[in-house]
C-alpha cells in the first residue's frame, strides 16, 4: 500500500524537538512496519498563532500545493497513493491539502489525532477552525489517541464508524532494555550530578517553552517545595526558550536538581533507567509520550489528569493521577511513593507490562495495517462514503 503522509503541525524530519514531531515520526514508522510504502506528500506547515490574514494566505498556498500534487499524481510524475494519511490537525494547524487531493483522486482520507473546538468559531483562528472542520467531515477514518477529543468530533462525522480508538505508542524496547542496566545508570547519574547516593531520583522529561510547559514546571517546583524535608533528587531532561525561567524556579533546591539538557536515544533511555519516579503535572496536555517512555522503563508515575493521560497511567496501579495544576496533590502523591518503596516498585513493574502490551509500536503497526487495508477495501467497493 502506498501512503501519502502529511503532518501539518511539523513535517517529518523537522529539526525542532517536540512531542507532536516525535509522534508523527512514530506513525510513519508504524505504517512502514505494517508493510506500507510511506512518502511525505507535502511539507506545508500550516501552524499559525492567530493571524487571520496569514491563515488565509496559508489556505491559498494549500490550494496551490494540492493542485500541483494532483497534477503530479495524474501525470505519473509521482506514484499515485492508495491512501492519504494526516497526523494531527486542529484549528491552529489544519490540513489544507489532503482533503483536496483525496477528493480529486478518489482515495480514502485518514487522520490520526484530530481535534475540534467549537468555541474557536468566529475567533482569531476562525479560518483554521473552518478548515479543520472541513477536513474532519471529509475523513474516511479518524484514529483517536485522546478519548477526550471524541465528543466534539462525533457530530461532524458522516458515520460513527469513522472514529476508532488507537492507544498512543512508542518503540518500548529501548526503554525496557535500559531498565536492565538500572544500577549502572544510577551510579553514572549520581556521579554526573553529584546527587546524594541514597536519595530516590525523580525524573521529568519535557521541553521548556513559554506555554503550558512552563506552567507545569511551576507546579512541579511548588510541589517539591512542600517536600524539602524528604530525601530526593530531581533529574530534568529538556531544553528550550524558557530554560532560564525553569532554572530559576528550581535554583532554591541547589544540588538536589540536575539539568541534563536535551537527550535522545540511549542517553534518554539511560535517564529513565537511573530514576525511580517520573513526575509531570501535565497542565493542558493531550497525552504525553514521556509517560509511555517512563512506564516502559519501569518507573512509577505521578501525573496530572489532563487530556488522555489517565488512559495511559492507570491510577493506583501504574502510578498516581492527580488534578493537573494541583501542586499540593502532586506533592501528596510523591510523598506517598517516597514513603513506600514497595508500592513504588510494584507500580513500575505493572506499568512496564502494560506499556509493552498496549503502547508498543508493534501493536500499533499491526492495528494500522489491518485497519487501513479495510478502509481501502471499503472505499474501492463504494461503501466507504
Distance between the termini: 20 Å
Low-confidence stretches: none
Class from secondary-structure proportions: alpha/beta
What spatial order of strands do you see in the largest sheet? 2-1-3-4-5-6
CATH architecture descriptor name of the largest domain: 3-Layer(aba) Sandwich
Largest sheet: 6 strands, parallel
Q: Which shape, going by the Cα principal axes?
A: elongated
The gyration radius over C-alpha positions equals: 22 Å
Tally of contiguous helical segments: 14
List the helices and strands and how they pair.
Blueprint (H helix, E strand, L loop, with lengths): L1 E5 L12 H15 L3 E4 L11 H23 L8 E7 L8 H8 L3 E6 L11 H13 L2 E4 L5 H4 L9 E3 L7 H6 L3 H12 L7 E5 L6 H14 L7 E5 L5 H8 L6 E5 L3 H10 L2 E4 L8 H8 L3 E6 L13 E5 L3 H13 L1 H18 L2 H20 L5
Parallel strand pairs: 1-2, 1-3, 3-4, 4-5, 5-6, 7-8, 7-10, 8-9, 10-11, 11-12
Helix pairs in contact: 1-14, 2-3, 2-4, 7-10, 8-9, 8-12, 11-13
Describe this structure in words.
By secondary structure, this protein is α/β, with parallel strands linked by helices. It has two domains: about 1-170 and about 360-380, Rossmann fold; about 175-360, Rossmann fold. It is built from 14 helices and twelve strands. Helix 1 links the parallel strand 1 (about 1-5) and strand 2 (about 35-40). Helix 1 crosses helix 14 (about 360-380) and helix 7 (about 180-195) packs across helix 10 (about 265-275).
What descriptive keywords fit this protein?
six-stranded parallel beta sheet, single chain, Rossmann fold, 2 domains, alpha/beta, 385 residues, 45% helix
Amino acid at each position: 500500500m502506498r501512503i501519502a503522509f502529511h503532518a501539518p503541525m511539523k513535517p517529518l524530519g523537522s529539526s525542532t524537538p517536540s512531542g507532536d514531531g516525535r509522534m508523527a515520526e512514530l506513525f510513519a514508522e508504524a505504517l512502514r512496519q505494517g508493510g506500507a510504502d510511506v512518502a511525505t506528500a507535502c511539507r506545508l506547515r500550516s501552524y499559525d498563532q492567530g493571524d487571520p490574514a496569514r491563515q488565509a494566505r496559508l489556505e491559498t498556498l494549500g490550494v496551490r500545493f494540492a493542485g500541483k500534487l494532483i497534477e503530479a499524481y495524474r501525470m505519473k510524475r509521482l506514484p499515485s497513493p492508495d491512501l492519504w494519511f494526516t497526523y494531527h490537525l486542529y484549528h491552529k494547524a489544519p490540513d489544507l491539502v489532503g482533503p483536496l487531493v483525496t477528493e480529486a483522486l478518489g482515495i480514502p482520507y485518514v487522520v490520526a489525532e484530530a481535534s475540534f473546538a467549537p468555541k474557536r468559531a468566529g475567533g482569531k483562528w476562525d479560518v483554521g477552525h473552518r478548515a479543520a472542520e472541513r477536513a474532519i467531515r471529509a475523513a474516511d477514518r479518524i484514529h483517536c489517541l485522546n478519548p477526550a477529543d471524541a465528543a466534539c468530533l462525533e457530530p461532524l462525522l458522516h458515520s460513527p464508524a469513522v472514529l476508532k480508538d488507537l492507544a498512543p505508542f512508542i518503540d518500548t524496547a529501548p526503554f525496557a532494555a535500559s531498565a536492565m542496566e538500572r544500577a549502572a545508570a544510577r551510579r553514572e547519574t549520581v556521579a554526573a550530578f553529584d546527587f546524594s547516593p541514597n536519595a530516590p531520583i525523580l525524573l521529568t522529561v519535557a521541553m521548556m517553552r513559554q506555554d503550558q510547559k512552563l506552567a507545569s514546571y511551576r507546579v512541579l517546583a511548588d510541589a517539591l517545595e512542600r517536600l524539602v524535608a524528604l530525601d530526593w533528587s530531581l533529574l530534568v531532561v529538556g531544553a528550550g526558550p524558557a530554560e532560564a525561567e525553569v532554572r530559576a524556579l528550581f535554583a532554591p533546591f541547589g544540588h538536589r536538581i540536575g539539568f541534563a539538557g536535551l537527550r535522545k536515544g540511549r542517553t534518554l533511555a539511560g535517564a529513565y533507567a537511573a530514576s525511580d519516579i517520573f513526575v509531570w503535572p501535565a497542565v493542558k496536555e493531550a497525552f504525553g509520550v514521556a509517560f509511555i517512555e517512563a512506564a516502559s522503563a519501569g518507573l512509577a508515575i505521578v501525573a496530572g489528569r489532563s487530556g488522555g493521560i489517565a488512559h495511559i497511567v492507570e491510577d493506583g496501579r501504574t502510578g498516581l493521577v492527580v488534578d493537573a495544576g494541583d501542586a499540593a496533590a502532586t506533592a501528596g502523591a510523591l510523598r506517598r511513593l517516597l514513603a513506600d518503596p514497595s508500592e513504588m516498585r510494584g507500580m513500575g513493574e505493572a506499568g512496564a507490562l502494560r506499556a509493552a502490551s498496549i503502547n508498543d509500536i508493534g501493536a500499533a503497526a499491526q492495528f494500522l495495517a489491518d485497519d487501513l487495508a479495510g478502509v481501502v477495501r471499503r472505499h474501492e467497493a463504494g461503501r466507504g462514503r
